[in-house]
Specification:
heterodimer; A: alpha/beta; Rossmann fold; 5-stranded parallel sheet; 8 helices; about 10% strand; B: alpha/beta; 2 domains; 7-stranded mixed sheet; 5-stranded mixed sheet; about 35% helix; about 20% strand
């Protein structure tokens, strides 16, 4: 498992370096969660990405797209080689994901605060259609500044959407602007089942993602580190939206954990 | 048109199991039967328009057909980015039915006016815009467009024309033909336009679909190359469409619409009509000026 993650980290950093685009630390922050989700939790068929019975994953913080692309390629939604076009003029793979271009991308996100309410709609829709699948959404703590996140939190608990799981990638990027304190308490106050985990511990992630509740939506507050696994980038704001130069690339790849 | 809204939406809820109605805490009494008949598909979602529009997009992702209903400024202006990303950029179908129009709620003030809706939505690629002039026309146009896979905005108003025409989504109607000028009337402005022009030798075209615009009917019915465009929202929203439809011929275009300012007076809608010039007499003067220009 760990070696898979390291391989994905390498891929993400090389893609960003080649294209000069991408939010590497965010992609690394969510990578363990995405890997466990696609490797062990979600029901899906990469050859039939529109299967109505699939579980849905919505990357609400779209700027972590590189992490999701890398995982989707690894899981066979499209050839890994296609990712080499990342960020180029006519590529399907942009800095934020486009559902109309990339198989396996459920929603086109980028502007923050849109993915979670769409996930609420998808979860409500599954219930209306009597489909027993689940909807997973991944938001960031910076994203949780947006009012629509809390509008969604109200809606999901009011409508008892126990088929909805919201993972918060709590890498504390918003502490410098608008601190959120204990996110778990906040979600609980909004009527959610909520738990806090180490967002890089695969067993803990798996356990939290498999939680179930009779009537409550489920919040998983994943404590994460921006740039996880790449020492020079860990919790270093300078790297938020920066690509390594070719000169930096070799030593960065060497240093990966 | 509110009563018709209930009848039309109820009949679609009954006939099409894919439809889901989301009310922004208005119209709840009117839809009381629908709540009972379709408890899984009718929601009084609350006063959170942004999340409501995104939630509707999530329903659409699953192949359902959302119908969102609230007052125009909250549906359009507050939720503009949700309409842009959730529906237009993602290419998802949905229906947005507003009430209040430009200033139906005149006495409630500018927070409840929405003369900017059509101009704003015209800037969202893929958004269809419908401005029916009567209840009956709303019924026809909604049933034609609600499941076409595109986002569609229906602008309902308390103001109605006395007669319904045989409207078709995406097409303008030729109401009468004349030589000296062409008047393009949108939705409920047809009534004063027809009164104003009853004995004038002018063409009157009636537009109930704003986007996609029907250029052909205009091109085929504008021998004078003089157009008075009468729109019940901020003026000139369709001016580019008019000039492009007639290009390369040069058109003399006059725009009547809500002036681009806040309508800070209260009172009743017809009082605003008089100030703006949405009266037969005022429109007649505009047409005559254009004819002799």
């Amino acid at each position: 498992m760990r070696s898979d993650i390291k391989h994905l980290r390498r891929k993400i950093i090389k893609l960003a370096a080649d294209s000069g685009e991408g939010h590497i630390p965010s992609a690394l922050s969510v990578l363990d969660i995405l890997w466990v989700l696609y490797d062990r939790v979600l029901k899906f068929d990469p050859k039939n990405p529109d299967d109505p019975n699939r579980d849905r994953f919505i990357l609400s913080k779209g700027h972590a797209s590189l992490g999701l692309y890398a995982v989707l390629a690894e899981k066979g939604f499209f050839p890994v080689k296609d990712l080499e076009s990342f960020g180029k003029f006519d590529s399907a793979f942009g800095g934020h994901p486009d559902r109309n271009k990339v198989p396996g991308i459920e929603t086109s996100t980028g502007s923050l605060g849109h993915g979670l309410p769409m996930a609420v709609g998808a979860a409500l829709g599954l219930r209306i259609q009597n489909i027993g699948s689940r909807v997973y959404a991944l938001i960031g703590d910076g994203e949780a500044n947006e009012g629509t996140i809390w509008e969604s939190a109200l809606l999901a608990s009011h409508h008892q959407l126990s088929n909805l799981v919201c993972v918060v990638d709590y890498n504390h990027s918003t502490d410098r602007a608008l601190g959120l304190g204990c996110m778990s308490e906040k979600f609980r106050a909004f009527g959610w089942d909520s738990t806090i985990i180490d967002g890089h511990d695969h067993q803990a992630i798996f356990g939290a993602l498999k939680r179930s509740s009779n009537s409550r939506p489920i919040a998983v507050i994943a404590e994460t580190i921006k740039g996880r696994g790449c020492p020079i980038m860990e919790n270093n704001a300078e790297w938020h939206h920066k690509s390594p130069s070719m000169a930096e690339l070799e030593s960065i790849l060497e240093s990966l954990i | 048109m509110r009563k018709q809204l209930v009848n039309t939406v109820e009949s679609v809820l009954k006939d099409d199991e894919r439809t889901v109605l989301l009310l922004g805490d208005i119209g709840v009494f009117g839809f009381r039967h629908a709540f009972r008949s379709f408890p899984n598909r009718v929601y009084n979602i609350g006063i959170l328009e942004q999340a409501t529009v995104s939630l509707a997009a999530g329903l659409s992702l699953n192949g359902l057909i959302p119908i969102v209903h609230t007052i125009a400024p909250f549906l359009v202006e507050r939720s503009l980015e949700q309409l842009k990303i959730g529906f237009c950029y993602q290419k998802l179908g949905g229906n947005f039915i507003s009430v209040g129009a430009s200033y139906d709620y005149a006495a409630l003030g500018c927070t409840h006016h929405c003369p900017a809706d059509v101009g704003l939505l015209k800037n969202l690629p893929g958004m269809e815009i419908v401005v029916p002039g009567t209840s009956g026309e709303f019924d026809i146009l909604f049933k034609q467009a609600y499941s076409d896979g595109n986002p569609t905005y229906f602008r309902l108003s308390e103001r109605e024309n006395p007669v319904s025409y045989d409207v078709e989504f995406g097409k303008a109607n030729v109401i009468k033909k004349g030589k000296l000028a062409t008047v393009a009337a949108v939705g409920p402005l047809l009534k004063p336009v027809l009164e104003a022009s009853k004995d004038l030798d002018v063409t009157v075209l009636y537009y109930t679909t704003i986007s996609p615009f029907d250029p052909k009917t205009l091109k085929d019915n504008c021998p004078s190359l003089k157009v008075l465009l009468c729109e019940p929202y901020y003026q000139g929203a369709l001016s580019l469409e008019i000039t492009k439809a007639l290009a390369p011929a040069p058109v003399l275009l006059e725009c009547l619409g809500v002036p681009h300012r806040f309508l800070t007076d209260y009172g009743q809608a017809h009082e605003h009509d008089e100030v703006i010039g949405f009266t037969p007499q005022s429109i007649r003067e505009r047409i005559e000026r254009l004819i002799y220009a």
